[in-house]
Amino acid sequence: MTNLNTIPATKPLSLGFLGVGWIGRNRMEVLMKVGKAEAKCIYEPFDDNAKEALKIAENAVLAESPSQIYEDQDLDGIVIATPSAIHAEQSIAALNAGKSVFCQKPLGRTAAEVKAVVAASEKANKLLAVDLSYRYTEAFQAIQKIIKNGEIGEIFAVDLVFHNAYGPDKKWFYDIKRSGGGCVMDLGIHLIDLALWCLDFPGIENLQSHLFYKGKKLENHEEQVEDYASVSMTSETGAIINLQCSWHVSAGRDAVIEAKFYGTEGGAAFKNINGSFYDFQAEKYKGTQTEILVTPPDEWSGRAGIAWAQKLEAGKGYEAESAREFVKTAEIIDQIYRR
Fold this sequence. Notes:
Blueprint: E1 14-18, H1 22-33, E2 38-43, H2 47-56, E3 61-62, H3 66-70, E4 77-80, H4 87-96, E5 100-103, H5 111-124, E6 128-130, H6 138-148, E7 155-164, H7 176-179, H8 183-198, E8 204-213, E9 216-217, E10 228-235, E11 240-247, E12 255-263, E13 266-272, E14 280-286, E15 289-294, H9 303-313, H10 320-336
Parallel strand pairs: 1-2, 1-4, 2-3, 4-5, 5-6, 7-11
Antiparallel strand pairs: 7-12, 8-9, 8-10, 10-11, 12-13, 13-14, 14-15
C-alpha cells in the first residue's frame, strides 16, 4: 500500500495540469495536500472548471495553450485529465518536452497510440504513469497480496464485473473517434488491469468478445461504441478470465464492481458495497467459509498520483515493466474491439 504520508519534506514538486474537470481537480488537490506538490500552471478550456481549480490552487497561472505548459522549464511533471482522444498526443508532447507524465486512463485509444507514448517515455527517460486507481484501494491491495503469497493456490478462473447504471454524462464518451471505445474502454480497462496484475501479465489466448449497443449486437465498430460487453479469454497458463461490463444497465443499484479469483486452494473477491463507486470490501473464501479482509472506509482517491509523485521525487525515469503492462492491456482491448 502506498503510504500517503511519506513524500520527503523537500522542495515541492512543480506540476502542470492539463484538464481540471472533477477528476483533474481531485487529483490536483490530493497531490497538493498529500504529495506536497505545487500546481504551477493549469490549462483548461472551460471557464467554470478553471475557476473551481483556482479555488484549490490560488497561485497557479492559467495557460493559454497546452504548449505553454510543455515549454515551462521549471516543471517536474504534467498531470493529464483531458478527453481520451488527446491523451496520447498530449502525453507524447509532454514527454518530448522533458516532463514526466501522469495520465488518466486510457493512455491511448489503441495499442498503436499506447506504444507511441511508451516509446516517447523511453526516449526521454521520463516517468510515465496511468491513473489505474483501483490498484491502490486497500481492498484490492489485500487481494493482490494473498494471490502473490499463494494463499489461494494457483488461479484457474477470474470473474470480472463492472456495471454502471448511469453511464458517462459527456457526449465524447459515445463518439468512437474521441473515446476509442465504450464501456470496455471506460470501465473494463480497470478490471482487466487488476486481473492481469495479479496473474503477472501473462499472454492471452482464445479471446472472444460480444459487444452490444442498446440491446442489439454491435455490427459497426467504427461508428458506435458498446454499452454492454461480455468477454472471455484464456491466459497462457490456462486460467479463464471472464469480463462483463456495461453502461445504463438495469443492475438494481448504482454500480456492481467485482473481481473474483478462484484458486486451487481457495478464492478471493474485491467487491463494492451497497452499489457504491467508492466503498470496497476484500473477502477470502475457503469452501463455504468467508473471511472479511478489508472493509470501508478507505480514502483511496488520488493514491495512484501520489505513487507517481513519490517516484518522481526519488528521481525515477522510464519504467520498462509498467510500460510493458500498458501495452499488453491495450493490445487486449484492441482484440476485444477486433482491431
